[in-house]
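>> received
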Amino acid sequence: MSRSSMDGGKPPHEMNQTGPSCDERRRHTRQRCELPVRIVELESSSFESGSQLFRVFSGWQCDISAAGVGFVTSASQLCGEVFLELRSSNHGLSFQAARIVHAQETQNGHWRYGARFVEPESRVDRYEFD
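>> returned
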C-alpha cells in the first residue's frame, strides 16, 4: 500500500476516520505516528501440509506504545498472532510478535487493527542480525 495510492496522499487512518479516545483506559501512553509497517501472518492451512506458508502485507502505523501498536492495512480478517516489522522515526527497524486484539473496517475499505506485543521486552532490533 503506497501513500500515493491513497486519497490525497494520506495514510488511510487519517481519511475522515473518527473514533472514541481510549487514552483514559490505556496503561501506556500511545504516540501518533505515520510510519510503514510490514505484517507477516502464518497461513492456517500450512499446519496441515507440514510446510510453513506466510502472507505478507504492507500498512501504516497509526500509533504505538510500549505495549502495542495500531495500524491500517488493506488486509482483511487478520487474527491471532502476527509478526510485525516496525519502522521508527529515527529510521530504525525492529521486529515484534504481536496478538491482534481489535479489528475494524474503515470507511474507505481498509482495516484498522490494534495489536498487543506478545513480549514487549523481547523486541528484536534489526542490528542484532548483522
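>> The radius of gyration is 15 Å.
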